[in-house]
Fold this sequence. Notes:
- The protein is mostly helical and 248 residues long.
- It has helices at residues 4-28, 59-63, 78-96, 100-123, 128-144, 148-169, 175-184, 190-213, 226-241.
- Helix 3 (78-96) runs antiparallel to helix 4, helix 4 runs antiparallel to helix 5 (128-144) and helix 8 (190-213) crosses helix 9 (226-241).
- The model is unreliable at 244-248 (pLDDT under 50).
- The chain folds into two domains: 1-96, no CATH class; 125-248, no CATH class.
- Bound molecules: zinc ion.
Amino acid sequence: MWDKIIYLPVAIAVGLAxxxxxxxxxxxxxxxxxxxxxxxxxxxxxxHQLAWKDNIPILSYIILRGKCRYCGTHISLRYPIVEGIxxxxxxxxxxLSQDPLQMISLWLLYSGAIVASAIDFEYxxxxxxxxxxxxxGGVIWAVQSSHLLxxxxxxxxxxxxxxxxxxxxxxxxGFGDVEFFGALALFLTPFSAVFxxxxxxxxxxIWAIPQLLSHKANKKTKVPFGPxxxxxxxxxxxLNFNTFMFKG
Length: 248
Ligand SMILES: [Zn+2]
């Protein structure tokens, strides 16, 4: 048993800092803005560079009452939400993990899932970097729980299945979903991968019902599948934690 309580402040601090960084990724990656130039964060409306005091996770949003200090433009609630979710996910990982290495693998999984989901919701695309972060976490996870072969087989199967759906759906599903679920499946067994797809499909359908019922929906209506695949994987993994699958 490892001393989980020591990691609690670490998880909160690293989670908030990384959440703040993921906000930068979520803004810059789909707009193809360099991550190092400009080095400092800026207001997307007035382009004023932000001071350190404008950049404190969650706190700055509350102090500034959700408005840019320089031009008064409303700041998206996405910023504090991503920071809060990342910190909460990092804390949850402590309690789900058997050792610090497994915790790190979950941190990577949650990081990839948060970045992929936020960008997919807005732009209907999943950046390669989010897939790579998820996959690195998956390999660490599989090595730590000593079923690397099973994980690779599950990932290959999931990738092949989604590739088939991708080819048959002719653009209905994005290739980013194929890569993303391949990476997520490293954390799953064949059985729990099927379960994850089931959960993802049900949640996606529930999410899409209001759109399908409204007159706005047509053949081009798309559902971002990435966030739902992440939710499905999270549920399947959580059930695995509570059964024999990963306990042996
Ligand atoms: Zn501004």
